[in-house]
Amino acid sequence: MSDYDVIIIGSGPGGYVAAIRCAQLGLKTACVEGRETLGGTCLNVGCIPSKALLHASHMLHEAEHNFAEMGLKGKSPSVDWAQMQKYKQSTVDTNTKGIEFLFKKNKVDWIKGWATIPEAGKVTVGDDTHTAKNIIIATGSEPAPLKGVEVDEKVVVSSTGALTLGKVPKKLVVIGAGVIGLELGSVYARLGSEVTVVEYLDHITPGMDAEVSRQFQKMLTKQGLEFIMGAAVQKTESTKSKAKVTYKLRSDDSEHTLDADAVLLATGRRPFVDGLGLEALGVEMTDRGQIAVNDQWQTSVKGIYALGDVIEGPMLAHKAEDEGMAAAEAIAGQHGHVNYSVIPGVIYTHPEVANVGETEETLKAAGRDYKVGKFSFMGNARAKANFSGDGFVKLLADKQTDRILGCHIIGPAAGDLIHEVCVAMEFGASAQDLAMTCHAHPTYSEAVREAALACGDGAIHM
How many Å apart are CA 389 and CA 412, to the nearest integer? Predict the structure, then answer.
């Protein structure tokens, strides 16, 4: 008899969701976590604390720029960085303790420590070895290194260190114009930092709809972020309180330097599988260092599964959660399923940016005929009342069938608005289906309906 039906290694969104779902399906379940708290990178040093800082800094922006116009007069608030850090930590604590409560409620055992898999069916944590019929690897990811950049988490920091800087830096250099770099760069720009983003490519947010990417960069520039594009960072040099970043422009190979009080390395993440013993087990890996799995999240070793950031696909918490539920159902004898064509992405700046499905670029590359329905938030009454008229909704639909193929939103509450399109795509809806659905007035969501109308005879309010 095995100690458990399933042992999950890692308690991030993929791991803890898999553990809870396994327990709900009647499987005796344990989850191994080496941190002092559950929740993985996302809840401890990723999604949740960064959103707390984004919210706090946006409130400051509103007070400085919009309160007076609304008739809210008074001295603008000052930044108490220490108190903001306490607020951020209380948000983290509430969420991580919530996962601990859910484990107890669902009778999931928390095995504290770092795991190794000596052989299929066994997990060693410290001096103890536990047996399980099935093992799920959900150990997440870590910041990817960059040659010449030495991270000390004090002056040159990863996304983790950027959450706990000793003070708001006067000058911040961000290496990489992806989601993490732009979110955290946005936080510090609102708090008063001079933020310079250095990006290797000629555009920000790789993979995003090109029109949205261009508009997004213009908005961030207007907010005070400076961009140096087409620049390859060569090295960083740091002292106890200062740093220097050296980069070369790809256009002419000229070398330049930037002085900074802090440098954020945000060039992506890589799977974290150190110490698991996968090579000795013979677990097949991809060329990019990810764990190879089949359509039921099984690895090449029987009884061992993997999901989330350690396998192929976007490194998103909600993608990992879906895989966690699906893998649990597969282990329980059901058929787990994830629709990888309908996984939304969100950037939590202000305005927010959200997307799902195809972009114009991917549709053109595939040679597919499509039509575009677009609506500006300047035509949305709620957005204008809330100083949020910048941005637009772009809906992409098949030219012949009108079936929705993708959606791209830059504007207020974009991360929430995208989900009605996700539901529509899950049901194979047409743009007309969305256009004929009554939307409450005045709401931001009316902009989504108007974009759907624009796929047909035309929007009403534009």
Answer: 8
